[in-house]
Amino acid sequence: MTSDAVAVAPTLELETPHGPARAHLHPAPRPRAGMVLGHGAGGSVTARDLVAVTRVAREAGISVALLEQPYRVAGRRSSPPAHHLDRAWLAAVEQLRAGLLGDLPLVVGGRSAGARVACRTAAESGATAVLCLAFPLQPPPTKFNAAPASRLIELDGVELPTLVVQGAGDRFGLPPPGPTRKVIIVAGDHRLTRDLDAVTDAVGDWLPEALGLAGAG
Description:
The protein has helices spanning 48-59, 70-73, 82-97, 113-120, 152-156, 196-211; strands spanning 11-14, 21-26, 33-38, 62-68, 106-111, 129-133, 162-167, 181-186. It is of the alpha/beta class. Strand 5, helix 4 (113-120) and strand 6 (129-133) form a beta-alpha-beta unit.
């Protein structure tokens, strides 16, 4: 069984237009690429799938920054508007590119709402590839909205190599594959915790190909 433990990481505060963000830094010893991952809307960077993916990425020679959005740093759970998230993310990524990640090939991504941010900003962030964990394709119906709009347009707008790892029972739906998008379905739901080995296997197999890192991992 794969361990999902990652050592306590140093943190770095990053100024954004919407307050300070915080990056939890997991540098690889001899990095060949970088990765920035964001958390879910009400979650944190300690989500088990994010921690597990951080470990497998570092084993592949990829330095990882787990990024807390300003609203979470401030202790709030309610997510701000999408354009606030996107601007804060881009400002933080720019600073990470000026420091820890330099000009390394970059994977951007995250789980759930964090994956949406990474998709919307992929081109502007200068990313090489996008990783989506539990992409929330369509909100479940409510008594006020029986047919919520799909977010597939956010995935389809990404023209880079993209991996989506989705639980078979995810209540937010299952995204389809696309011209540059691979979708791996694993056991479990939106939390992606039932089979973390399957999650890390999918990411570990995809990363070298997406980044052109022959022999990585």
